[in-house]
Hints:
The protein is an alpha+beta fold and 41 residues long. The chain has one domain (4-39). The protein is 24% helix and 32% strand. It has helices at 4-9, 36-39, and strands spanning 16-21, 27-33.
Amino acid sequence: MFIISEELKKLPEKPGVYIMKNKPGDIIYVGKAVNLKNRVR
C-alpha cells in the first residue's frame, strides 16, 4: 500500500528537482529545491 506520509519521510535533505502533475498526468510545474524534504511536504 502506498502511504504518502511514509514516502515523504524518505526524501533526502539534499538539492533536487520535482514535478507536479494534474489528474490526467500532464506536467504542470517543474521546481528545484536546495532541500527536497523541506520543499515537498
